[in-house]
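Q: what does this look like with zinc ion bound?
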Amino acid sequence: MLFPSGCPVCGFENRVEFADSSIHDVTCSSCGKPYCLFVRKQKFEVLFDLGTRALMDGYAREAVASFAAALERFFEFYVRAYALERSAGTEQSFDQAAASLDATWRHVASQSERQLGMFALAYLLREGREPDFLSAKALGADFRNRVIHRGLLPPRADVEAYAARIFALIDRLLTELGRGAAHAELAQERAFAEHLSRLPEGVSAVFEEHPGMFRARRFASSVPAKTPLPARTTPVSSLNDAQVFARALAERGAGLDWLRRF
Ligand SMILES: [Zn+2]
């Protein structure tokens, strides 16, 4: 998957392939100068945006795999945010906590069922209640399996309903995480800083924040809770999943235009 990136030296628009690490070493196709592009975005956000873009472009079936992967990566994000948040109040340094977390994650990295188990416990410990939204039915697991493993060609409306369910769930959990999400984001900043410190002289560093479906919500979580809602705005809690997704799509869908051109 390619996206456009302006060269910091000559302004030429290069085509850059999404890197798993969000760190992209680029050589400009026009002026030949190297630069390093850091994209401040979490994996689950990238995946959900790719799914949304595919859905908007009419690739409903392809979108399902991206939405399903977005949910799995979000569960990882939640576990990481919680583990780092919890260690923040202890004598353990951030680096020690992050290293233990990475080592622990390796035990579950190749099996999504194990990851789901970690998420369930993290949710219980953080929120003090059962993650009752984790049933296979609520997660649309059967639909996902029929599409991905059995080749079902789903009607667009079913994919929209699936996307809405996942969006509403992630949106709700991000709201509950609030500032806790910053701990997982800090881990990304640390990885960026480490790469930055090793860049050869003469290589420019560029930091970007691409607009996306969840970005606005994340920033909203840092707004003081008592900010009054504008009059006539329907409170989010009274909207169903389809309405939450439709509203986000109306507000932020156009922000995904940068994904369309390549
Ligand atoms: Zn250039």
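The longest helix spans residues 60-88. Confidence is low (pLDDT under 50) at residues 223-232.
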